[in-house]
Amino acid sequence: MIRVLLVDDQPLIRRGFRALLDLEDDIEVVAEAADGHEGLALAREHLPDIALIDVQMPVMDGIETTRRIAADPTLARTHVVILTNYGFDEHVFNALRAGAAGFLVKDIEPEDFLHSVRVAARGDALLAPSITRKLIDRYITRTPHPGADTALKELTNREREAVALVAQGLSNEQIADRMVISPLTAKTHIHRAMTKLHARDRAQLVVLAYQSGLVIPGDS
């Protein structure tokens, strides 16, 4: 069962998402909150698998809420998905840097919304290749991470290769095909890289891969 926390200051938005999620046999909404402060408290109480968090809220916004969830060891298994009205922008990028696994635009189709919740619950990043390109072009190349290249030296050659392929938007199955290994081995390489780099999820691997120079914009 996928346990979901909804955090949004608009009751109508929360009710709409809850109505969709409540129809699914494998998803349970464990709590709702109207701001980040309340959402953080409920996250610590219910330990959800997914926290769907609005990026702009009163009291505590989605970026700070994400940062606090990411810093809390008791919430290590909680994947944050940012909700936004505007698509990819600087607020979303800052949320990704804070530890979010990805983002969803609120006018998303219901089927795509449910699919995305399940993808995030598996620990995969909600970053399509087109979004990754925007991430790189608009923000990553402007905000280098001085320690990223040093951290990558802790990886084995195969782990570095796997991280580079994650940064190009490939799934575990595609990475396995490219590296001529099993999907399970690909997943293991990625998991070990995340552990060594202290990355919560694949979205942070993407940021680190480009900020360190492991992957250069335009690589394919």
TrEMBL record:
CDD domains xref list: LuxR_C_like (cd06170), REC_NarL-like (cd17535)
UniProt xrefs under Pfam families: GerE, Response_reg
Keywords: DNA-binding, Phosphoprotein, Transcription, Transcription regulation
MF-aspect GO terms: DNA binding
UniProt signal peptide: none
Biological process per Gene Ontology, one example term: phosphorelay signal transduction system
Record-annotated Response regulatory domain positions: 3-121
Domain HTH luxR-type: 148-213
Chain positions found as 4-aspartylphosphate: 54
Protein name: DNA-binding NarL/FixJ family response regulator
Source organism of this protein record: Actinomadura namibiensis
